[in-house]
Specification:
Layout: H1 18-35, H2 40-56, H3 58-69, H4 73-93, E1 101-102, E2 108-116, E3 119-123, H5 129-142, E4 146-150, H6 157-168, E5 176-178, H7 183-192, E6 196-202, H8 205-216, E7 221-225, E8 231-234, H9 240-252, E9 264-268, H10 272-283, H11 304-319, E10 323-326, E11 330-331, E12 337-338, E13 341-344, H12 351-354, E14 361-364, E15 366-367, H13 370-377, E16 382-383, E17 385-389, H14 393-402, E18 407-410, E19 425-426, E20 429-430, H15 437-440, E21 443-451
Parallel strand pairs: 3-4, 3-6, 4-5, 6-7, 8-9, 8-17, 9-15, 13-14, 17-18
Antiparallel strand pairs: 1-2, 2-21, 7-20, 10-13, 11-12, 16-19
Helix pairs in contact: 1-7, 2-4, 3-4, 3-6, 4-5, 9-10
The structure holds nicotinamide-adenine-dinucleotide and manganese (II) ion.
Residues 1-2, 4, 68, 154-155 line the site of manganese (II) ion (MN).
Amino acid sequence: VTSPIDESHLCDLQMANADDVEVAVQAAYKAFKSWKVELPSVRARYLYKLADLIDQHRETIAKIESLDNGKSLFCSRFDVNLVVNYIRSCAGFCDKCDGRTINTGANYLNFTKREPLGVCGQIIPWNFPIMMFAWKIGPALATGNCVVLKPASATPLSALYVCKLVQEAGIPAGVINVIPGSGRGCGNAILKHPLVKKVAFTGSTEIGKQVMIDAADSVKKVTLELGGKSPNIVFDDCNLERTVQNLITGIFFNGGEVCCAGSRIYIQDTVYDKVLEAFKEAISKLKIGNPFEEGVFQGAQTTPDQFQTVLDYIKIGKESGAKVLTGGERIGDKGYFVQPTVLYDCSPDMRIVEDQIFGPVAAGPMFSSIDDLIEKANNSIYGLAAGIHTEDLNKAFIVADRLEAGSVWINTYNDLHENVPFGGYKESGIGREMGQEAFDNYTQVKAVRVKLNTPSI
Ligand code: NAD
Ligand code: MN
């Protein structure tokens, strides 16, 4: 395990292979027999206890995350806070996972039960390691499932640390199995295991498609959180100061390694220059550098590959004729630091406008009317999120309605909340995480229909 901050060696870990996956799946399968019949209130107590322990260890976990992932401590603290809130929210759902009764006339009783699926395979990425851990195990455990989870090989440490807390919380052995390993050697064996009944994957759209293919063999239930290239839209009647802050949060929070990053910034032509100027000014005040330094907003990119990809895209952008508003270079010569970069005067068919870059690089095209905007904004294989900035809420709702996106933020951005569902339209994914909707991904409905006889007395 290496640190993206200075490329130093942090520690060595065992890489799980297919044999280890077998052990983990068998452990989960065995644990499922008793976990699924545990009283819901008891499962809730375990999850509350785990949330309390993460809460007590929040600073340690945030530091591990910054060390392994490279994100600023500011970002890591945000993540751990959402982790604690979300696991508590899941704990509260344990004893509310009810079915319904259905009226088909007096001669029948119909009711449904929401039952767990069994062993869930969960494969997560390196951009939000501990947050993705929580989004995956929370709803799975709350509804009575057991999990085998593979963290990304670039960022395995925070999930492993939290495993210690899982034990301390007394969660029975086998309910949560975390096995670090590669996608090919370990992830693949999870996807192909016949005892795994459900797969939840977060990562690239490309691998997401492969996940569906591999899961098809044993018809596993699949949820996917994939890539995005989300439009962040600025109308001329916006509050400029607030909007600029939301543009920054949209593309530079977490170094732009955010699936829902507002990476296509559409600015109304009447205020194009004015908004870019204010944006540039605000970016110049951002502190980028060592994640542990006070006041640092943007840390290092997480992997050497991703770092190179981001620099390559900046080059592609320049070569295709986009202009550089600010940034465009790496910072220093050690660690994976990239200047916050905005490219403007972009045409819709440029690769920097179409492709997910997954770094601190925004492309800024302009629009002239709502029809023009909708045409451009929806012209993407992705549909994860969108942002709208205007003081005219009537206009905001009209535009929100026409956008193809799973999350629409109005006068805010990247504004995740544990009670609000998150997930993608189009090739950005299948299913929703967080909110009530997340529990649908981890339950199956049993419908019981009882024929009633007319009593003889
Ligand atoms: P990836 O999709 O390759 O990896 C995500 C997870 O899947 C990791 O745990 C990885 O080990 C695992 N994996 C990879 N191949 C697998 C396979 N064949 N079978 C089973 N599991 C497999 O993502 P990446 O290579 O880390 O990043 C590449 C690009 O993906 C990034 O540049 C970015 O565009 C995108 N990405 C998106 C998100 C997101 O939140 N949606 C997160 C990370 C990366
Ligand atoms: Mn790392």
